[in-house]
Amino acid sequence: MAYRIDEQVVRGEIDNRVKGQVVGTIWLEGREDPLTLELRGNPWRDLAGHVLRFSNPKPRGGLPEGLATVQTGQVGDITASRKVKVLECSMDEFVEHYKRRTPFPWHWGNSLYLEWYSEYNGRVVIESSDYTLELAGEAAWTMTPEEERAQAVENEKAMAGFMGDMARMLELMPDEEEDTEIPEVEAEADAWDATLNLLFDRTDARLRAEGLEDNFEARERIYEEEREKLRRERGEPEPEPPTPEEIAEQERWVAEMNAICEEAMKEVETHPLPEPEPHPLRVFTFELGLQIHKEIEDGGWIPEGAPEEHPLHEVHYGVTFAGAKLAGALGHFEYGDRTWPPDAWVAGDVLVRLKKARGYLRDALAGLDASEEQRLAPQEWISSIRPHVEHILNEVLRLIEEARGANSD
């Protein structure tokens, strides 16, 4: 979803002395020419009107491909005052604390957050609490609270525009397996899933901007505000208040569901449910993900500090995430009456999850292709893993077609 290049930054400078524009230069490890920023908009108030210089004490290589030298576009959230939890122990010590469920030492620290929306690369993010920061001189101008609120609105619009562009790109992507007509129930589920993803992204962006990531009540409030805002943006009618008859029907339905649940609980107490029988495809995918992780780690094939986009990460993450989506898609089979294809009332959700699993498996195969081309792992290992991933993908494609066929009438 975004280019994240904080580890690759060597040093940089951003300049907002001219109101309404952010210019700058960022040098990256392993790249001769620096990035040049030419952005519309302003940072948050802490950096508005300032020149900020920053440097990374431990830059690492591994740049993502395709990053344009000249970055023109719209600013996102740009601030040096975001509060984050900073570990006071090594990562190995943190893992041990996590395993033992014991508290780990940490403190609140300021984090530099640079976000912009490039006309060429889309969303680009630099985020770190480890950089050395320096404000050069006095501010050339001072941002008012009203101007900061107006900039926050522009940032939200930029995020919404970016997510909309991503959604349109995904809709236009060719899919060689999808030459059959998509059932209405699946189309509705896809649309609802895309809306939820957009709402979650917009909610997270506001929570980050307001420093409320850990505030559950704020998350609920902002989510509802973003849902209402999206409704207005799409020109959808305002929901009408329920009639007395609809309220009475809803209360009757709730009472009926409560009675059914109470009866089911009593039934479970006297006749316990059978243990779930894991679907073999989910089990196979889960175990393959564990195997891939162990063999990559034991082989030492991924260099320390390699970015998330490293092809072998793609292989591991692709299979692991596919397993998680299969668990959700096949859960009703494992805990229900073991029937397949799914009933119409769950078919949309099942198909959304299966298609996400399909996407992750394709990512894993692309990671294997890149690993083979770049000789990042032994050829015999790649040749042994590929048939398993292809087998899972073929099974997922079969499940998709079966679920569609049973619910397309």
Q: What does this molecule look like?
A:
It is a single chain. The chain has 409 residues and is of the alpha+beta class. It folds into four domains: 3-148, no CATH class; 151-233, no CATH class; 240-273; 280-406, de novo design (two linked rop proteins) (Up-down Bundle), CATH 1.20.1440. Helix content is 52%, strand content 17%. A nine-stranded mixed sheet has the order 1-8-7-6-4-3-2-5-9. The longest helix has 31 residues, at 344-374. The chain is globular. The two termini are 36 Å apart.
Write the layout of secondary structure elements.
Elements: E1 3-4, E2 9-15, E3 21-28, E4 35-40, E5 51-55, E6 70-87, H1 91-100, E7 106-118, E8 122-128, E9 132-135, H2 145-172, H3 184-209, H4 216-233, H5 244-270, H6 280-299, H7 311-329, H8 331-335, H9 344-374, H10 379-406
Parallel strand pairs: 1-8, 4-6
Antiparallel strand pairs: 2-3, 2-5, 3-4, 5-9, 6-7, 7-8
Helix pairs in contact: 2-3, 3-4, 3-9, 6-7, 6-10, 7-9, 9-10
